[in-house]
Predict the structure of RING-type E3 ubiquitin transferase.
Amino acid sequence: MPSRLPIQDIFAGLVTSIGTAIRYWFHYTLVAFAWLGVVPLTACRIYKCLFTGSVSSLLTLPLDMLSTENLLADCLQGCFVVTCTLCAFISLVWLREQIVHGGAPIWLEHAAPPFNAAGHHQNEAPAGGNGAENVAADQPANPPAENAVVGENPDAQDDQAEEEEEENEEEDDAGVEDAADANNGAQDDMNWNALEWDRAAEELTWERMLGLDGSLVFLEHVFWVVSLNTLFILVFAFCPYHIGHFSLVGLGFEEHVQASHFEGLITTIVGYILLAITLIICHGLATLVKFHRSRRLLGVCYIVVKVSLLVVVEIGVFPLICGWWLDICSLEMFDATLKDRELSFQSAPGTTMFLHWLVGMVYVFYFASFILLLREVLRPGVLWFLRNLNDPDFNPVQEMIHLPIYRHLRRFILSVIVFGSIVLLMLWLPIRIIKSLLPNFLPYNVMLYSDAPVSELSLELLLLQVVLPALLEQGHTRQWLKGLVRAWTVTAGYLLDLHSYLLGDQEENENSANQQVNNNQHARNNNAIPVVGEGLHAAHQAILQQGGPVGFQPYRRPLNFPLRIFLLIVFMCITLLIASLICLTLPVFAGRWLMSFWTGTAKIHELYTAACGLYVCWLTIRAVTVLVAWMPQGRRVIFQKVKEWSLMIMKTLIVAVLLAGVVPLLLGLLFELVIVAPLRVPLDQTPLFYPWQDWALGVLHAKIIAAITLMGPQWWLKTVIEQVYANGIRNIDLHYIVRKLAAPVISVLLLSLCVPYVIASGVVPLLGVTAEMQNLVHRRIYPFLLMVVVLMAILSFQVRQFKRLYEHIKNDKYLVGQRLVNYERKSGKQGSSPPPPQSSQE
């Protein structure tokens, strides 16, 4: 092997590498053009063609496909359409798995037990889940609640169980007729070979499907994706929309729907509702004429439409109702009227509806979280009317499949009543009380601008980067709230003699645990063993029809129990009202008082005053809880703890001044000089710098840089940050932080700021240039030096890449064979040592 490669070899290697790069570039360009251009553009043009409503659009569709007008907008809209069709396809596949593994409803698949050789029925549970019904025959049905809201009374559930049993008995005759179809379906499931599907899944990878492996097989996948998009647009969008459109036009509701600004969505939902009604009617007719396959197909289609509508109602409509009700009940708090909300809806209907839906979703989420916290405090069985979302047997999709529509509608109405009543109690009524007692406190100031010298952007960044992380990550808010709930429960229990009902007794808990074990053993002995292939189906039926609250514990029932429960509810409402009054007034009052020292008489957005007051309240509560925890340890220990914490606070303040004060300020100022000032300020004007805004932006940039550093490769800065994070505040090492982190970072930032300034203000005037040139150099030296540094980094990277290419060309040209042999130390056996590596060279 020569020490240096000939020029022709280097040139040939470069040409080969460039050719390979060009080939890959053409292939990946074709892949990007197919998946990011052809597929979304085709989906968008077909979607527009179908919903134009004219025959001429169908005739001009091939020409519209080749049109170059609005390419970017159509591609973006097509990506949304493709995403919707892909989600619909995945949802259909997932729903099919839920029906196959969880079992179809009783009215759809109610097969009679097969006959044995003697002509008698086998003692097996049918596919409709009758085995689960027999197990829970003597138990009241436990209706699962959606949205974590009120369910039914267990005493009133016995009648429902009897009605369900009567309906099942009426469907037994129809189940005998479907036995043959059920057996054929089971036979098809038995003939299904999972190994072939696994092998196909192993062969089809994401690289092969998208064309990233270098082959052209992805063109076939592009064709099938385009065909699937067209089919889904036609079936799931075009047909329901036109069914709803023709129905609304026939009923004369077209003008009302157009006035809602959501004509397409409402018309499509109406079409789906009419389609569901049509499917259930056709299913009934197919049952009467004994068309078994058509009956099952229509039933499955009805289940798909039913589950889709229920998902829209639960995830879309219900949070939207909650959001609008919250807004209506809080109008006086912001000095707004319904006319203002109507004008905002007319100007931006989509944004308004999304914001209300988001607020409602947050409200529902926190309500469900509070219910989960209550379950950790209260006796199991107190919240029997609320569905336990942490229950491993809870499956909302199975409930949507099996439970009838009227039960979903009833629970939806109860959910709206409960959530709306809580909003009235904790928002509307406290606002009325505050306006009567403190007339000058409301309304809150929610203006979008401020006359104060402090920028709204700076305050927002401070809120998002400092206040909220401290409250959410280190606030112990959940533990405090749980302690308050427990204290309130104990107080209410002893005042009303409901301690056993709310919290239970230790002796009763032990006895109930033993009784629960015995009951589970008894139920396990009485349960019929399901047939092969029906285990999960029978389990879901048992879940839906099981009775009594899970983990129920007995309690002592005092005298006048209904009256005590009523007084408990009144006491709870009063407590929630007082808590809401405190939360609406105390943080804002404290924040206004503290911000007045900073901004004077200028009005600040109440979001910042509330956040500041909440932060101060959190610090106060945290200090009080720490002192209460130290009190039993004695005065000497308290002084020792205070000394330790004082030293730790001093170290933390020094580190905070360096890392949260100096570094963000220098970083924000450097960003202002390099990026913002050259882009926003002309050469004939003088830029003005605001240290407060530069510091606030620097905090954001510092967090972004730290996150990128922690996600990147291992180097000294990542090692130091990980070590500081691992030590935490309690084990803070001031010397290590200053020497390893603060000093190097501050030195680099100071050099980046000072060196260009010294060159522009000290070196350039000595060269005798004009004043205009000095101004140009002074204003453009920072971005120029940034370009130089970036160029040097690119050149260094290209030099390393050329060295790697040089070694690769040399190895391909002169290295013929190479074998890697494992190295082992010689131990005892000399004959077991491997031979040395061999290589042949020219």
In short: The chain has a mean pLDDT of 78. The chain is about 75% helix and 0% strand. The beta strands are 815-818, 839-841. The radius of gyration is 36 Å.
